[in-house]
Write a structure and sequence with these properties.
elongated, 55% helix, 5 strands, 196 residues, alpha/beta, 5-stranded mixed beta sheet
Length: 196
Amino acid sequence: MILGYARVSTNRQELDIQTKTLKEAGAVKIYKEKISGAKADRKELNRLLEELKAGDTLVVTKADRIARSLSHLERIVTELTNRGVTVNIINMGLFTAETMKNPMTKLLFNVLGAFAEFERDMILERTQEGIKDAKDKGVKFGRKSKKYVIEGALLYAIQQVEAGTISQPEGAEFAGCSVATFKRRLKEYREQQATL
């Protein structure tokens, strides 16, 4: 049986192109994940590796889909080929127990794997440079903070706390929110008042 593995690093990326390529390569079952390749515990990859048996073929589009580094790639491919599994890395070639014993194939595997690792490192470096450049230009990363309109019961409770007539827990109860939320809104209210 030909089994495929498709992975992207974030939820914003799509698996469609990899899935289509794997189907074209004959994969009848495809394991998919949206998780960073740097993570050691990838549930779908682990399930796939357990399911593969002698005579099966694992197909992936690129080496960095299954491995974090050249040594990790070599460990996975060697373990699978020793179990009688053929590994088809579409951009590198087909690897079996016999071909992995051939010194020329082993050399080619290591050279191609080193290039894949180098490419991954270069992408990471460019990404980090881009993030630093954007930060230097004032781009803010992360979730945008919400601006809450402080009104109604919440506003009244905050005003009472500021006047010293009730405590913060009593204000939270009056406003119908948790004490932590009340404290955040109180802090925002004080910041707003300071700018007036």
